[in-house]
Amino acid sequence: MMEALIAFLTVFTQPELLLLVGLGTFAGVYVGAIPGLSVTMAVSILISFTFAWDVYPAISLMIGIYMGGVYGGSRTAILLNIPGAPSAIATALDGYPMAKRGEAGTAIGVTTVMSFLGGFLGIGVLALAAPMVSDFALKFQPRDYMLLAILGILLVGSLSSGSLLKGIFAGALGIAVGAVGRDPLTFTKRFTFDLQIMEGGISFIAVMIGMFGVSEALLQLHHVGQPAIRQKISRIVPSLATVKKHLPLSLQTSSIGVIIGALPGTGGDIAALMAYDHAKRVTKDPEREFGDGAMEGLVAPETANNAAVGGAFIPMMTLGIPGDAVTAIMIGALFIHGLNPGPMLMIDKPDMFWFIVGALVMANIFMLIFGLTGIKLFTKIVEMPRAVLIPLIMLLSIVGAYAVNNSINDVYWMLGFGFFGYFMRHYGYPLGPVILGVILSRLLDENWRRAIISEREDLGRFFEGIVTSPLSLVLFIAVILIFVSQTPLWGWAKARVLGEQKVAPK
Amino acid sequence: MSTSHSEHHDGSSDATPGGYKNHRRPGELIFGGFLFVASLVLLYSAYGISGFDALSAPGTVPMATTLVMAITALIIVIRTVRLPLVTSERISVDILPGVVVLFGVLLVAYGFLLRPLGFLPTSALFLIIAIKFLTRRSWAYTLVVSLGSLFAIWLIFRIVFTVLMPAGVVPEAEIIQLFRDFARVGAE
User: What SS3 class is residue B2?
Assistant: First the structure.
């Protein structure tokens, strides 16, 4: 116990590590916020910078960037409607309408405090429940991962106020895009059309930058004549009453964040979307409608995605399975330093685990400080005239897409998806499901195949497996329910059961 | 800030996707038709991966997803056909105005020029043309803003993140080395 405490305090007692966590968090906030710069990219570049360093300084810097970046993504989501990271997709839904009303300061303030709260709860759970959660995660079957992926994609469809059909189309398109290239299991070519450049697949970062960067910039060209949004930044630190009011919700959504983060592969993005969905369901008469600048719509995803950071470390540290893309890169970083994350690391080097917990706590505190102080500097970006901002966003998008693989093809893909996304926006197709589909494509595909192989290619046995496993059954019913709840059948069934004459239009 | 007529329907956020519930926008049917045809092409391509080999074959999930795409696209097209056209909108004003076409061309041109010309000259050209066209301010303003912001971006990416953009005609590495030499001489 004493050793754990000393390891936990390592980061607080060594000024060098403290500085690196602070520097990382500061950089993370801005990296997360700049469109086209992703945390994943920053952390992977950092590996090449830091592999000659000791393991503690390297991890300190990465953890800072990670924590700051997950939070920083919300900034551009609120101010420009461009999520700086996938985990901020849901944040844009209500954050941007708030900024449009001139309440960007309030939105950022609440986001910061709630991110801090969520982050803290996530770390707490990581420290306390890591062994327990690892037991639970061990029970997951491949079919459960698959069901979870489908659930995640369907949820975005249900998020949208538009047509569910268009949402499903977008999600399926995303899965197809994610499948392009050589199949990782059998090396078979998929959707390559016999072109060599297609064999490596399509970089999902290119898709993301295109859909959320370039297509938004093109869309903004319609409004270039309008004056830039003037941000009122007087009320940054939210009142205690505001925080208190949303405390119950933030505790719920933090829990969602930790649980989703702790599931292998699913990180802050799904957590944020699920939390948003949850908030939409449990909030009775919000002051404003969801999608029109509801405070609850900010609290939910922002607590959840930062809570998911702590959660994502649980499978990484206990099982050696990354909780999300960033922890996947961190596993690579630990490998470089001769450490092998997994059950044995927890037993052999518990100090590593406790050091990471300490660094996360510190990064979370830095995030709060930088979040509440750097706003004036940051909101200046939106006070720039759109006529200057739009070309700069386009340029940053191109640089960002190019930088991922140093590939000009990624730039063309990015532009292609940018133009495509532009038309999708005009005709009411949601873009979120495309991104989710691309990210989850491989997970879904691999787990489907593992599941069906273990059932000897027998669909009957596959469904028998789902029905007889409580966990799979819960996930399966959730998928069916979300699907049914979006169809006329739901209203019909509700009317039959409750005897209502008229069902309110969705 | 005024919420213009079009802003409600161009889908700036997933919570409020563009389009109208009971009308079809100009070009919407063409787009839907394109998606349906593209889905069919992808479905055929997915079938070509491994056919109906096995449920665990590499082509199974691609076939399932492209089938879902084709079915949903078809239903969307059928529903769109039934809707009346929005009378107040024209494709050249509300969907694809000249400025968007111009920027589309500029972006593609940027992609083509990036390799041969290099990052700095291409970006400078792009920013100068784009900012001059959009702001319609003086050349002095355009040059200061575009070159100033380009320098800032270059500093962040090239120096801080060491992202290597194509150098093209500018001997970037040599210039940086020159500065490093200067700095070393100064330090000594």
Answer: coil
- pLDDT, tens digit only, all 506 positions of chain A: 677 788 888 888 889 899 999 999 988 887 777 654 556 656 765 665 566 678 888 889 889 988 988 888 888 788 777 776 667 878 888 888 888 887 878 888 888 999 999 999 999 999 887 766 666 666 777 887 788 777 767 765 554 556 778 888 988 998 999 899 888 888 888 998 888 888 888 877 678 778 877 887 888 788 776 555 555 555 567 778 888 888 888 899 999 998 888 765 567 777 888 888 888 888 877 778 887 888 888 889 999 989 999 988 887 787 666 666 677 667 767 777 778 766 667 777 778 888 999 999 999 999 999 888 866 666 665 456 778 878 887 887 788 778 767 788 888 998 999 999 999 989 988 777 787 777 678 778 888 998 999 888 888 999 998 999 888 898 899 888 877 776 677 777 767 776 544 444 43
> Which of A18, A42, A35 is closest to A325 using CA atoms?
A42
Q: What ipTM did this prediction achieve?
A: 0.89
Task: List Cα–Cα distances, B119 to A206, A389, B158, B166, in angstroms.
Answer: 18, 19, 11, 6
Q: For chain A, what are the domain ranges?
A: 2-454
Q: Do B165 and A402 touch (CB under 8 A)?
A: yes
B85 three-class SS: strand
Judge: B126–A175 Cβ closer than 8 Å, yes or no.
Answer: no
Q: Which of A395, A406, A440 to mutate to test the interface with B (most CBs of B within 10 A)?
A: A395
**Which residues are within 8 A (CB) of A145 and not within 5 positions of it... i.e. 6 or more apart?**
A264, A265, A443, A444, A447
Structure tokens at A299: 């609290």
**DSSP output for A156-221:** HHHH-SS-HHHHHHHHHHHHHHHH-EE-TTT--EES-TT-GGGTT---HHHHHHIIIIIHHHHHHG
Which of A403, A299, A341, A310 shows the shortest CA–CA distance to A91?
A299
Subunit contact B97:A183, Cβ cutoff 8 A: no
Instruction: Tell how far CA A426 is from the center of its chain.
Output: 25
Q: Do A191 and B42 touch (CB under 8 A)?
A: yes
User: Shortest CB distance from B65 goes to which of A176, A391, A453?
Assistant: A176
Q: Where are the domains of chain B?
A: 6-91, 97-187
Phi, psi of A320 (to 5 degrees): 75, 15
Chain A residues in contact with B161 by the CB 8 A cut-off are 42, 45, 403
Phi, psi at A189, each rounded to 5° = -75, 135
Strand, helix or coil for residue A232: coil
Task: Compute the radius of gyration of chain B from its Cα atoms.
Answer: 25
Which of A288, A426, A444, A458 is the best residue to mutate to test the B interface, defined by the most B CB atoms within 10 Å of its own CB?
A426
Per the CB < 8 Å rule, is A425 touching B17? yes
**How many degrees, rounded to 5, is the angle at CA A292 between CA A287 and CA A297?**
70
